[in-house]
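re: the backbone from monday

yeah here it is again, tokenized this time
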């Protein structure tokens, strides 16, 4: 795991630069299939933690930790980094790099090579020779993409438009940069799956344009195939979705988004496989327990158990409560939490979760919620919770004509 690099100057720009540098190193390392690499959004949760590195290693389930500090003085950068054996706390190596800001991508390459050398017993000889192409040499495009990703992961009515704008700006700043196009493909898929669009066909068309453009620019970028898998799922093309998923998995089996896509592929089949769905959700959680999308991983486990058992109650309590505790949780998961609490007799908690859902999506209504779920199995699940939906209306959930959702 790569922990968040310290930025002693504490300026927002340096902190953002340090986070982006560490996250890009994680991305490069995660492509080595013989390494288990925890996603940065989970390892970064230990920023400013007083926990011992051995405890962090145990909690993340990793053998090595990378720590570092980035200092900036005008255009000059200095990075100090250490590779630590998590079980013992022993430092395997340390390094220092002095670079100009314009050379940040060379700094990423140097650090990644040093890490690979330090953990070489864990790598196959073939993988040690893999040369990763740089995603972009345009620092402005890279910064815009990083900012867009942060907004994307906030999962709110305010952050979604901001993410869309920033990712478009990143792509415009460097039209050869594949990642913002791939993320835009995923953005359009999220608009569909979260029930935030009235024109599914338009979202699919625009999303496919971005995903395919990203693949043309870089056919080894797993995010492009994740987007392709999600969009094919929205079109009901399971075979195409699974082919795209297999390609993403072959490129990077450490990416939690690959397993999240697997849960969606299952969810959108007429007869989902709840065992596969739950296993994929649990794998995503193992790879990135503190991920901004962790609520969705818990939600996948919830849906798998709901489909398997045909009802919602104590059987989904653990994953659904875990999802609802997370700040990024979407409105529909909060409503499911409210339904579960009504079933368990916790009216006060149900009302609290309903209010949280209305804050998350101010235009939320019962009709838009019901119509927003477009997966084939939904009509079989919905009747089992309609009494609780009626109770939520009494608690303050507005009604609205179903026709408002396209």
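seq for it, each position gets an aa:
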């Amino acid at each position: 795991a790569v922990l968040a690099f310290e930025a002693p100057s504490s300026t927002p720009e340096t902190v953002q630069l340090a986070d982006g540098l560490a996250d890009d190193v994680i991305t490069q390392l995660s492509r080595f299939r013989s390494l288990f690499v925890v996603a940065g959004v989970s390892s970064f949760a230990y920023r400013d933690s007083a926990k011992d590195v051995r405890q962090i290693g145990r909690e993340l389930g990793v053998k090595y930790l990378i720590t570092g500090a980035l200092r900036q003085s005008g255009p000059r950068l200095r990075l100090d980094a250490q590779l630590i054996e998590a079980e013992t706390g022993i430092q395997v190596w340390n390094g220092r790099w002095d670079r100009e800001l314009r050379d940040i991508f060379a700094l990423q390459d140097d650090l990644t090579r040093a890490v690979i050398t330090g953990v070489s017993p864990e790598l196959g000889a073939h993988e040690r020779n893999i040369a990763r192409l740089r995603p972009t040499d345009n620092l402005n495009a890279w910064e815009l993409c990083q900012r867009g990703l942060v907004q994307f992961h906030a999962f709110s009515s305010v952050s979604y438009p901001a993410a869309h704008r920033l990712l478009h700006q990143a792509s415009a700043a460097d039209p050869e940069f594949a990642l913002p196009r791939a993320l835009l493909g995923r953005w359009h898929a999220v608009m569909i799956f979260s029930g935030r669009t009235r024109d599914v066909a338009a979202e699919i068309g625009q999303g496919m344009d971005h995903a395919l453009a990203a693949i043309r620019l870089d056919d080894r970028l797993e995010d492009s195939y994740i987007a392709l898998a999600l969009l094919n799922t929205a079109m009901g093309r399971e075979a195409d979705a699974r082919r795209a998923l297999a390609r993403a998995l072959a490129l990077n089996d450490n990416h939690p988004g690959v397993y999240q896509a697997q849960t969606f592929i299952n969810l959108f089949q007429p007869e989902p496989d709840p065992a596969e769905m739950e296993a994929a959700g649990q794998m995503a959680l193992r790879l990135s327990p503190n991920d901004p999308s962790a609520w969705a991983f818990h939600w996948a486990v919830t849906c798998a158990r709901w489909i398997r058992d045909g009802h919602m109650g104590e059987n989904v309590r653990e994953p659904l409560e875990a999802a609802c505790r997370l700040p990024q949780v979407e409105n529909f998961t909060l409503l499911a939490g409210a339904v579960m609490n009504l079933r368990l007799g916790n009216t006060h908690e149900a009302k609290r979760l309903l209010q949280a859902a209305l804050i998350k999506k101010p235009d939320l209504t019962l009709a838009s919620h019901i119509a927003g779920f477009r997966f084939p199995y939904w009509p079989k699940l919905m009747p089992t919770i309609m009494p609780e939906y009626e109770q939520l209306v009494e608690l303050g959930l507005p009604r609205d004509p179903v026709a408002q959702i396209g």
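Confidence is low (pLDDT under 50) at residues 120-133, 402-406. The chain is about 60% helix and 10% strand.
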